Amino acid sequence: MKKNSQERKKALVTGCNGQDGSYLMEFLLDKGYEVYGMVRRLSCPNYQNIKHLLGSVNLIYGDMTDITSIVKIVKDGQFDEIYNLAAQSSPAESFKQPFLTTDVNALGSHRLFEAVSIYSPQTRVYQASTSEMFGNAFESPQRETTQFNPSNPYAVSKMYAHQMAHIYRNKGLFVACGILFNHESERRGLQFVTQKICYGVACISLGMKESPALNEENEPLVKDGKISLGNLDAKRDWGYSPDYVRGMWMLLQLNMPDDFVIATGEQHSIRELVQTAFKFVGIEDWEKYIYVDPRFVRKDTCSLLGDPTKIKSIGWKTDVDFKKLVEKMVENNINQLK
Ligand code: NAP
Questions:
Q1: Average confidence (pLDDT) over 256-281
Q2: Helices 322-337 and 270-280 sit at what angle, rounded to 10 degrees?
Q3: Would residue 92 count as lying in a domain?
Q4: Nearest CA owner, ligand 1 atom 1
Q5: What is the DSSP string of 115-140?
Q6: Does residue 3 lie in a domain region?
Q7: Among 39, 50, 60, 89, which is best to mutate for testing ligand 1, by the most ligand atoms less than 8 A from CB?
Q8: pTM of the prediction?
Q9: Are residues 36 and 111 in the same domain?
Q10: Counting atoms of ligand 1 from 1, which one is nearest the CA of 129?
């Protein structure tokens, strides 16, 4: 039920122009919230994911590495809810930029919790934790009680924020943590393997031997008609971002803050993802379009699978399955490239 303007809840989304932030802002607008999004000042603004929302949301400049901007936003805003999604969100990149990753993800979240606890302690906070904290997991599937074993700087930075969220929760702040397993969408960044594959398959289906977009090594993502990938046997639990942002909101509507795994409970390999994507465009002999490049083989996390029993017990469910997700991503890339 939407509220009238006097009763409208106010929400702030950090990382609002990222994949999840953009879907979450759409979701909150639809629920009748007054929505604020924090963006960092870039010389060339990156509003691709939120350009359709620009008249409907309020954007505020701020940076997770800058305590002054965070304090001002929290103090002035007096939000009902803050969704802390801002992050250097790539595990692979975190090996190349470990200190930036720690500053943004660990200390940035800590700055936010501290600012809320001093200037707006009634605000409910959602913290974007990650399945990467399980790393080389001690048990499968992973659940809220599974011991963490992080294996990259990103995972460690997120674990710091997760543990710090518990400290502030124990001090009385409402901080809920969603331990989210991989979730993708048409808006996923090109540095992530799912989007790399779906984009590459779209290029190949259109007869392109070389893609306009580059990979992290500044080479065409599709080169000589092939996509370069890492370990095809790595397995993940992949869901659809709009389903997951609904889960984030649900956590802040509970009576008590808590931790919840958000996952599909199904595991698929990169190989299956590649096969599904090629099959969608009518290509069965997909192997000849793939080059396994040792530079892209991740030696850290190999197999993650979430147990969504707890989040399902409060009514959460997925609407988009693995096959549909891959097809949506490939189709969107084909339309964009055309
Ligand atoms: P994303 O697309 O990479 O978005 C990250 C957002 O953070 C972007 O809006 C980015 O802004 C912003 N950001 C980066 N550094 C910042 C800084 N110093 N100050 C302020 N904003 C900053 O990530 P996502 O997939 O939407 O994920 C959302 C959150 O969930 C992240 O915290 C991620 O770590 C976590 N998570 C994601 C997954 C997943 O599978 N997607 C799984 C578990 C947890 P710019 O556009 O300016 O770079």
A1: 98
A2: 50
A3: yes
A4: 18
A5: HHHHH-TT-EEEEEEEGGGG-S-SSS
A6: no
A7: 89
A8: 0.95
A9: yes
A10: 44
For residue 219, the domain's CATH number is 3.90.25.10
The domain in which residue 65 lies consists of 10-184+239-262
| pLDDT digit string, tens, across residues 159-218 | 999 999 999 999 999 999 999 999 999 999 998 999 999 999 999 999 999 999 998 788
Question: Helix, strand, or coil here: 35?
Answer: strand
* C-alpha 224 – ligand 1 centre gap (Å): 32
- CA distance readout (Å), 174 to 74, 201, 256: 15, 44, 7
2 domain-assigned: no
Q: Give residue-wise pLDDT tens across range 25-49.
A: 999 999 999 999 999 999 998 999 9
CB 112 within 8 A of CB 125: yes
5 domain-assigned? no
Alpha helices by DSSP H, listed for the chain, are 19-30, 67-77, 91-96, 98-101, 108-119, 153-170, 193-205, 241-252, 270-280, 309-312, 322-337
CATH of the domain at 75: 3.40.50.720
Q: Which amino acids bring their CB within 6 angstroms of ligand 1?
A: 14-15, 17-21, 40, 42, 46, 63-65, 85-89, 104, 128, 130, 180, 182-183, 189
In this structure, the answer to whether residues 93 and 211 fall within a common structural domain is: no
